[in-house]
Amino acid sequence: MSIYNGYVQEVVERKGQGLHPKPIDGAELLSEVIAQIKDTNNEHREESLRLFIYNTLPGTTPAAAVKAQFLKEIILGQEVVAEITPTFAFELLSHMKGGPSIKVLLDIALGADEAVAKQAAEVLKTQVFLYDADTNRLKVAYETGNAIAKDILESYAKAEFFTKLPEVPEEIKVVTYIAAEGDISTDLLSPGNQAHSRSDRELHGKCMITPAAQEEIKALQALHPDASVMLIAEKGTMGVGSSRMSGVNNVALWTGKQASPYIPFVNIAPIVAGTNGISPIFLTTVDVTGGIGIDLQNWVKKTDENGNVVRDENGDVILEQAYSVATGTVLTINTKTKKLYNGDVELKDISKSFTPQKLEFIKAGGSYAIVFGKKIQTFAAQTLGIEAPQVFAPAKEITKEGVGLTAVEKIFNKNAVGVAPGKTLHAGSDVRVKVNIVGSQDTTGLMTAQELEAMAATVIAPSVDGAYQSGCHTASVWDKKAQANIPKLMKFMNEFGVITARDPKGEYHSMTDVIHKVLNDITVDEWAIIIGGDSHTRMSKGVAFGADSGTVALALATGEASMPIPESVKVTFKGQMKEHMDFRDVVHATQLQMLQQFDGENVFQGRIIEVHIGTLLADQAFTFTDWTAEMKAKASICISQDETLIQSLEIAKSRIQIMIDKGMDNKNQVLQGLIDKANKRIAEIRSGEKPALQPDANASYYAEVVVDLDIIDEPMIADPDVNNADVSKRYTHDVIRGLSYYGADKKVDLGFVGSCMVHKDDLKIVSQILKNVEAEKGYVSFNAPLVVAAPTYNIIDELKAEGDWEFLQKYSGFEFNDALPKTAARTEYENIMYLERPGCNLCMGNQEKAAKGDTVLATSTRLFQGRVVEDRDGKKGESLLASTPVVVLSAILGRIPTVEEYKSAVKGINLTKFAPIPTK
């Protein structure tokens, strides 16, 4: 069977699923398509033309190279295709976004045929995805007196690729669609259990919200053809949880507009809104696509005649509606006045949605075009020896005289690119920064690879200190989907220059270690900036930002990121942690006390949490920084003492060495380079040349939170509150309850110790509790299944050396086996302990699942509906989050324990402790 016939067979199968033919990315298939186009009598010629013109992926895909070459032959008259004139061929090249298409355009523009050279030049003037090899060709041609090259460079210097684009419409008509009440998790827009299909955009689009919701959106579009559908989180925040480019892609697919008539299923310009705005990571992703994100604030706190906040009988703040955005409401966005209207009635100032920079993203169809456009303009001006005219909105630069710097302000100032020497910037300033560490995870990695191909990138930016491609999100089950996707991803990333978790040759055995743990280890400078394709990219060294797959691609390709310097909230501690408490309880209590201190307002949302963690090592401190994603913070920074940071760096060095010993370094010796950087940093701290990062004493904060350790007297549980009468208050991470609330009668169907929230000491706690129970009863039995998944192989190796793993094996009914990996996900469990493979496991929700309707008690971070556990008829699934000792004891008892039972079980156990640094 020919490749084309095999493709046709797949087309028939997809048609049965209501799908169009899959976009072509392979060179061999497109070559066969072209052969059929050339054969004017071929029975498949008409369909082949359609596939070639409308269904071939652009960028640096193998198919794009074949397509660009054939278009070149048509333009030069070497091939004649009646349906594709040379003029049309140029138009097709203009939509291919870089890589092979740029090479072809340069070949023609710098060639001998002046007529076609000028046509190629006009197309090139619209292109921005040029890399060093491309710009070097232009520079050399210009320096040798080529008039066409000079003409192109002069256009680039004026940024005509941007200035000649249509202006943003003054008025944008929208029709509202409430996707849900309360916070909308990206799981609703792009479910984790459908991660395998994310790179197949049309197929993945079928999973957004529900089929019924998709039909309702289509009906609104039919009723209001002149309006865009605005997706809304009523009484909540839009896009919380994981960093999902796929979620934004899905919203754009259903409500946006097609980026190009010649690029299938790539839509841009979605419009999303939330009562409490948009999650920071999600908003960045909306910017990537040239979309609009709006903070509606259509529900406000109710106050009495004295201005005091009114609360209900449960102590919760009562909200009242400021204006309605009920589904089907027609509104108008005015991009000039920057206000939202219902008819002539002004509803809300939405200036934050239309900053000069965001308007540029909207005009250009996305932020990438602006990032690359600025680089092209700078290059052209420098080559011509002129000053680039001010075309783009100037970066906002805020300097506060006499005000010190927060930790994040210091890091941004150190890593800033293009800022005048000696200039100090404060929060709110727009900054381009060097990115030191980049992480790509496996369920978004294929999309990152697609983005890299689309922006014509072929090698990692040399300025990046280190980058890692994980295998943790698909580590549990080596099924057909994983076998099809993961080796392909690892090969691409390895060739791009990224350290890869799995062998790029496609061999099974791998380091599936949880990405956040690896990034935490390979970050060897607390002044570093980290970008990672997951919302839990939250390091306890440096400042880390979870990002969409596209922003990760941009960081890999350019070594830079652009964003405003965020405001910070300072978190300090007072009092003393009680002996029976675990640090995880302090983490939960921080969120609870913050909400109490600020009348229910989450001051962490969209800001940096600067946590003064003092003497807590990086592994343990990560528990706090990891949870800050659930606090809706943009990122977090740990302020450590000198000796603590040195100890953390020594641990990181030893783990990087293990990666080297396992053969994971690449030809550039990136991992060895990180060890060298760690040694340099340790020397700087020890010598006093450059102590551990500290904010200035006179730094300015948005707010300060002081956590009182003395009042944390019992374990704390984050509860999804699935039966709350107010739907908007379900599945948030803001309901924090003490153990006594449950009265020893809350049944637990499954316990899970795992995910990025646990470290080595947590696994030792599991072992120690089992020893305690065995010593008391003579045996250990489980009244609910207990799933244990270590975050890394290093932890298992250390537990084996220290004797804890042997005890865990003693009471396990299942232990993972790399030689015989699971090929099917587990959804039914016995009342035993399962020692699962390192990785995300249940927390990811894309492979393993609890039984429908179960009550799960977990150490993880995810309590969203349907993530860890789905509903069943008559019973909602619920995922409650707690410390390791609470989870283990609950699995043994089959219920949440009393405080007394808990205290008895943890006697003599070395729980994760924390003592704040005394204030001077």
How big is the Rg?
28 Å
How helical, in percent, are the residues? 25-40%
Mean pLDDT over all positions = 93
Alpha-carbon distance between the two ends: 78 Å
Strand order of the largest sheet: 8-7-3-1-11-12-13
Main beta sheet, described?
Answer: 7 strands, mixed
What's the total helix number?
Answer: 31
Strand content range: 15-25%
Shape: globular
**Could you give the count of β-strands?**
33
Description:
- The protein is an alpha/beta fold and 920 residues long.
- Helix content is 38%, strand content 15%.
- Strands 8-7-3-1-11-12-13 form a seven-stranded mixed sheet, with helices on one face.
- Helix 20 links the parallel strand 17 and strand 18 (499-500).
- The N and C termini lie far apart (78 Å).
Explain the layout of strands and helices.
Blueprint: H1 3-16, H2 27-38, H3 45-54, H4 62-75, H5 86-94, H6 100-109, H7 114-124, H8 132-143, H9 147-157, H10 160-163, E1 171-181, E2 184-185, H11 186-189, H12 201-205, H13 211-223, E3 228-234, E4 238-240, H14 245-255, E5 257-258, E6 267-268, E7 271-274, H15 280-288, E8 292-295, E9 299-301, E10 319-321, E11 330-334, E12 339-342, E13 345-349, H16 356-364, H17 367-384, H18 407-415, E14 416-417, E15 430-434, E16 437-440, H19 442-454, E17 466-469, H20 480-496, E18 499-500, H21 515-522, E19 529-532, E20 543-546, H22 549-558, E21 560-564, E22 568-574, H23 583-597, E23 608-614, H24 618-627, E24 635-640, H25 642-661, H26 670-687, E25 703-708, E26 716-718, E27 736-738, E28 750-753, H27 760-777, E29 786-789, H28 793-802, H29 804-810, E30 812-815, E31 833-836, E32 855-858, E33 878-881, H30 884-893, H31 899-905
Parallel strand pairs: 1-3, 2-4, 3-7, 7-8, 16-17, 16-19, 17-18, 19-20, 22-23, 22-25, 23-24, 28-29, 28-32, 29-31, 30-31, 32-33
Antiparallel strand pairs: 1-11, 5-6, 9-10, 11-12, 12-13, 14-15, 15-21, 26-27
Helix pairs in contact: 2-3, 2-4, 4-5, 4-6, 5-7, 6-7, 7-9, 8-9, 9-17, 16-17, 19-20, 19-22, 23-24, 25-26, 27-29, 27-30
